C-alpha cells in the first residue's frame, strides 16, 4: 500500500462472520467476470490502485469463472469462498463507509438544434489534453487531470459556465441536443445516458473526459443556503427545487465547475447496461463505482448497508458487487456508487441512496497473503 495506507487497514475476516453473505445470490456476476477477463487479456490490464492489487492478481479468479456455471445461489457463494478471502476495509478515523447510487438516464434528443432542443452533449475538444507532473503548469492544482493546450501553452480548461456560454460553439463537437439544461447537467453527474431520437433511434453516450475542475455538489450548496433540509436531500429534491426556481438554475449549476465530455457508445443490446470505465457492460444492482486511485477495477466487494432498504423490498442491502466504474465524487477507500440500472425507475431508486455501509473486498487466494 502507498500514500493511502495511513487512512485505512484491511482486516482479514471469515465468510462465516460476513453478515448477510449467506443470503446473497451472486450468480449474475459470472458473465461480467468473463467480460473483465477478455478486457484484461485481449485489450489491456486495469490500472493498479494504491492498494496494490493488480489485474494479474485477479486473473486466477477470472480464469476459474470462465467455465463455471452456478447451479444455485449456494454454489455461486461456494465458488467465491473457494477462490477468495474476505477483508473488511476499516477506516482509521472510525467512520463507516458510505454509498450513493447512479443510473443511466433516458433522454429525448435531436441530432439538430432548434428552439426546443437547445442544450448539447459535447465530444472531447481537440485542445483538451491529459495532464501529468511533467506538463502540468506551476500553480495548477495536482487534482487537474486535464487541461488546455493552446498556442503551445497549457492552462486550465474553461469551466461549466464558460462552456455553457458558448465557448465550444461552432466546432462541430455536438453529439445531440436535449430539451433541458438540467437534464444535461444530471447526465454529466451520472456519466452516461441512453439517447432517444425523434425518429425512434436509440443511441448511447458515455464518459470520455472532463474539463478538469473539481466536482462541487450542488446539493451541498443548497443545504448550506438553507434551501433544502439536509435530511431531505436527494436528486429528486434538487430537481424539484431547480424546477421551482428557474431564475437560479444557471447560478446553481455553475457552482459545479466540472464539465463532462462524452463519446458515442455502441448499442449492441439496448437492454444491456452501459459500458463504463472498466470497459464492460454494467450489471444493474451488481456494479459498483469506486475510487480508482485506491482500488483496481474487476475486484469483488461485498457491500452491507443496513439502512438501505428500498433496493431490496424492505430488506437491508447486502450484495456482492464488482468494481467496474469510478466517479469524481467517489473518493476514499470505503466509498461506493451503486449502479441501479437504466431509465426513470432506476433514477427514482438511485436518487435517494445516501447510506452508511461496510465494505469488504474479496481478494483472490494467490494475492491475499500479501495483506495478512
Please describe what this structure looks like.
The chain is 24% helix and 27% strand. The protein has helices at residues 29-43, 55-66, 73-83, 160-164, 181-190, 218-224, 235-244, 249-255, 344-350, 365-368, and strands spanning 8-12, 84-91, 97-104, 106-110, 119-122, 128-130, 146-150, 153-155, 174-178, 192-197, 202-210, 260-264, 287-289, 300-305, 317-325, 335-342, 355-364. By secondary structure, it is α+β, with helices and mostly antiparallel strands. It contains 10 helices and 17 strands.
Query: What spatial form do the alpha-carbon principal axes imply?
Result: globular
State which percent range the strand residues make up: 25-35%
Radius of gyration: 21 Å
- Specify the biggest β-sheet: 6 strands, mixed, barrel
Low-confidence parts, pLDDT < 50 over ≥5 residues?
A: none
Judged by helices, strands and strand pairing, the structural class is: alpha+beta
Helix content: 10-25%
Adjacency order of strands in the biggest sheet: 3-16-13-15-14-17
Mean pLDDT: 94
Element order: H for helix, E for strand: EHHHEEEEEEEHEHEEHHHEEEEEHEH
How far is it from the N-terminal to the C-terminal residue, by CA? 13 Å
Oligomer: single chain
Count every helix, treating DSSP H or I runs of 4 or more residues as helices.
10
DSSP strand count:
17
Keywords, please?
six-stranded mixed beta sheet; alpha+beta
At a glance:
With 372 residues, the chain is α+β, with helices and mostly antiparallel strands.
Write the layout of secondary structure elements.
Elements: E1 8-12, H1 29-43, H2 55-66, H3 73-83, E2 84-91, E3 97-104, E4 106-110, E5 119-122, E6 128-130, E7 146-150, E8 153-155, H4 160-164, E9 174-178, H5 181-190, E10 192-197, E11 202-210, H6 218-224, H7 235-244, H8 249-255, E12 260-264, E13 287-289, E14 300-305, E15 317-325, E16 335-342, H9 344-350, E17 355-364, H10 365-368
Parallel strand pairs: 3-16, 4-10, 13-15
Antiparallel strand pairs: 1-2, 2-17, 3-17, 4-9, 5-9, 6-7, 7-8, 10-11, 11-12, 13-16, 14-15, 14-17
Helix pairs in contact: 1-2
Amino acid at each position: 500500500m502507498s500514500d493511502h495506507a495511513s487512512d485505512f487497514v484491511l482486516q482479514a475476516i471469515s465468510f462465516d462472520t460476513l453478515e448477510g453473505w449467506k443470503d446473497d445470490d451472486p450468480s449474475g456476476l459470472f458473465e461480467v467476470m468473463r467480460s473483465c477477463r477478455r478486457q484484461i487479456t485481449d485489450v489491456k490490464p486495469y490500472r493498479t490502485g494504491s492498494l496494490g492489487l493488480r489485474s494479474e492478481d485477479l486473473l486466477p479468479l477470472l480464469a476459474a469463472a470462465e467455465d463455471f456455471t452456478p447451479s444455485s445461489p449456494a454454489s455461486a457463494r461456494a465458488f467465491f469462498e473457494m477462490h477468495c478471502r474476505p477483508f473488511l476495509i476499516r477506516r482509521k478515523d472510525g467512520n463507516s463507509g458510505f454509498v450513493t447510487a447512479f443510473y443511466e438516464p433516458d433522454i429525448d434528443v435531436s441530432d439538430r438544434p432548434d428552439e426546443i432542443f437547445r442544450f448539447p452533449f459535447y465530444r472531447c475538444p481537440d485542445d483538451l489534453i491529459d495532464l501529468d507532473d511533467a506538463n502540468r503548469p506551476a500553480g495548477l492544482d495536482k487534482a487537474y487531470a486535464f487541461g488546455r493546450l493552446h498556442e503551445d501553452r497549457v492552462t486550465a480548461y474553461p469551466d461549466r459556465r464558460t462552456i455553457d456560454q458558448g465557448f465550444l460553439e461552432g466546432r462541430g463537437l455536438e453529439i445531440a441536443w436535449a430539451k433541458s439544461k438540467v437534464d444535461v447537467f444530471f447526465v454529466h453527474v451520472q456519466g452516461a445516458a441512453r439517447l432517444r431520437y425523434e425518429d425512434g433511434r436509440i443511441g448511447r453516450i458515455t464518459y470520455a473526459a472532463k474539463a478538469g475542475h473539481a466536482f462541487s455538489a450542488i446539493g451541498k450548496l443548497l443545504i448550506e443556503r438553507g434551501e433544502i433540509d439536509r435530511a431531505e436531500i436527494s436528486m429528486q429534491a434538487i430537481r424539484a427545487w431547480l424546477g421551482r426556481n428557474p431564475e437560479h438554475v444557471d447560478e446553481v449549476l455553475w457552482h459545479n465547475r466540472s464539465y463532462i465530455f462524452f463519446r458515442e457508445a455502441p448499442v449492441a443490446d439496448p437492454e444491456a447496461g452501459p459500458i463504463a470505465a472498466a470497459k464492460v457492460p454494467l450489471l444493474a444492482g451488481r456494479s459498483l463505482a469506486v475510487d480508482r486511485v485506491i482500488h483496481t477495477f474487476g475486484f469483488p466487494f461485498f457491500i452491507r448497508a443496513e439502512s438501505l432498504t428500498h433496493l431490496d423490498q424492505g430488506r437491508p442491502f447486502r450484495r456482492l458487487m464488482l468494481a467496474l466504474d469510478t466517479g469524481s465524487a467517489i473518493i476514499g477507500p470505503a466509498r461506493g456508487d451503486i449502479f441501479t440500472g437504466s431509465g426513470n425507475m432506476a433514477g427514482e431508486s438511485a436518487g435517494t441512496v445516501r447510506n452508511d455501509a461496510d465494505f469488504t473486498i474479496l481478494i483472490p487466494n494467490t494475492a491475499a497473503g500479501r495483506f495478512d
